Amino acid sequence: MDAAFVETIGTPGIDGREVAALPVPEAYRAAVLLAEEQEMFDGIPNADRMPTKSLHVREVPTPEPGPDEVLVAVMASAVNYNTVWSALFAPVPTFAFLRRYGRTGGLAARHDQPWHVIGSDLAGVVLRTGSGVRRWAPGDRVVAHCLNVELEEPEGHDDTMLDPAQRIWGYETNYGGLAELALVKANQLMPKAGHLSWEEAASPGLVNSTAYRQLVSRNGAAMKQGDNVLIWGAAGGLGSYATQYVLNGGGNPICVVSNEARGRVCREMGAEAIIDRGADGYRFWRDEFTQDPREWRRFGQRIRDLTGGEDPDIVFEHPGQETFGASVYVARRGGTIVTCASTSGYTHQFDNRYLWMNVKRIIGSHFANYREASLANRLVVRGKIHPTLSRSYRLDLVGRAVEDVHRNRHQGKVGVLCLAPAEGQGVDDPELRARHEPAINRFQDDASSLPGQPGHSEIDGGPRSSTQIR
Ligand code: NAP
User: Fold this and answer.
1) Residue 456: pLDDT above 50?
2) Ligand 1: residue whose CA is nearest its atom 36
3) Three-state DSSP state, 70
4) In whole angstroms, what is the distance from residue 332 CA to residue 214 CA?
5) Which runs of consecutive H residues, i.e. helices, occur in 292-426?
6) Does the Cβ of 414 fall within 6 Å of ligand 1?
7) pTM over 0.85, yes/no
8) Is the CB of 238 under 6 A from ligand 1?
9) Ordered domains of the chain (ranges, CATH)
10) Residue 282: CB within 6 Å of ligand 1?
C-alpha cells in the first residue's frame, strides 16, 4: 500500500474528511487460501499439514461496501484457531462456506471467489461506509467482532447467535481481517481501546467475546462470585481471557496448562490454583476407544487438593475429545460444562451416569452476539480486561504466525501487523496505558514458555525485544 496512504490513515486525531478524501486502492494485499489448492492436504493427518504451504499473501480486488457495510483500513489483525482450521482445509475447506453464502444472492455473491481472505479480528480505521451506515464515519478508530448476521428471519431477534444466517466473518465469509483492507458489516464495529497499540487492540476480539458469552453471559454458564471454574488451556487464546473473567468476577480459577512457564503467567494474572497437565501426565484415554476413569479420579483429586475439597462449579471446555470425559466427571453435582470447541476431536465420549445422576448440565456456546461482544470490548476499553499478546509477525510471514498456533508454540495471542509499519503504534491514551502497562505486557514473549519452539534465532536472528517484529 502507498506510504502516504498508510501515514494519513495512522495519523492520530486525523480529520475524518481527510480519510474520506483518500482514494480507495483498487487492490490490496491479503492472506489468502486458494480454491485450486484445497485438496493439497488430502490424506495427510492434520498434525502434518502446514499452514506455511497453504497460506499466501496476494493482491485481491477491493470490494465496494454495500449499504450496511464498511471498508476498514486494517492496521493489525490476530491469528485465531479458526485461521488454523481454514489453513489446514479441515474439517472442511472453507470454500464450501463461501459457495453456500454466495448462492444466497445479491451482494453475498461477491464472497464466492477462487480465493479466500481469512482472518476474524482487526484493529484499524474506517475508510468508507455504505450508504445506510449512520453510526460510523471515515477516520473512526475501530475493532471488529466476527459475527456476520443477516437478521432477516425472526429467530435471531432475541439472540443474534440464533439467526439462521449467522456466519463467522473471515471464516465463513470472504474479505477477512488478515489483510490491508477488510469488509465488515457496520454492526461488527466497536471502538478501539485508546490505550492499546494496533496489534494489542486487534488481539482480544474473537476470544474475548467468546469467553464472555461462555462464562459470564446468561446465554453461557452465568458465572457467579465464589464459583470454582476449571479452565483448560488457561494460558492460551480463550483461556487467558476466561482466567481474567473468573478473577474479575470473584471466582476461583483452576488453571490447566502444559508447562511451568504457562503456569507462571497464570499466577501473574492472579490465579493461585494451577495444574500442570504436562508434569502430572494425565492419560484419560487408555487406547483409541477406551477412557481410564482412574485418571479422571486422579485429576479430580488434584482439583480438590487445590480447592480445599471442592469440585468445579463450571468447566470451561474446548479441547474436546481428549478431555471431555474428565470434564463431565470432575464438575460438581449440579455443575455446568460449557463448551465452544473440540480441538482434539469432535466426537466426545463421557460416562452419562455422572451427568444425569449428579444433575450436571452441558451447554453449547458459540462466539457471541453484538451486545455480548460490545460488553466484552467495553471492559478492554476501560482497562479491566487486558490483551494477552505474546508476539507479532508481519503480514508476509502470516503462515509462520498460524503455524505457531497450530503447533501450540504460543501463549495467549499471536498478532499480525497489516498496515501498521511497526509494533507499539496507535496509542491515543498514554495515561490509561501507564496505569496498566505491566498487565498489558504480561504475555510478551518468553522463549522458555514455548515448548518445541525452534528458537527465536531461527526466525529473526536472535532474542527479540518487545518492539521487534518477525
Ligand atoms: P489456543 O490459543 O491454541 O489455546 C488452546 C489451549 O488449549 C492451548 O494453549 C493448550 O494449552 C490447550 N490444549 C490444546 N490441546 C489440548 C488438549 N488436547 N488437552 C488439553 N488442553 C489442550 O486456541 P484458542 O484460541 O483458545 O481456541 C481453542 C479452541 O476453541 C479451538 O478449537 C478454536 O477453534 C475454538 N474456538 C471456538 C470459538 C467459538 O466461537 N466456538 C471461539 C474461539 C475459539 P496447554 O497446552 O498449555 O494446556
Assistant:
1) no
2) 341
3) strand
4) 18
5) 293-307, 324-330, 352-356, 370-381, 398-406
6) no
7) yes
8) yes
9) 3-207+369-449 (3.90.180.10), 221-364 (3.40.50.720)
10) no
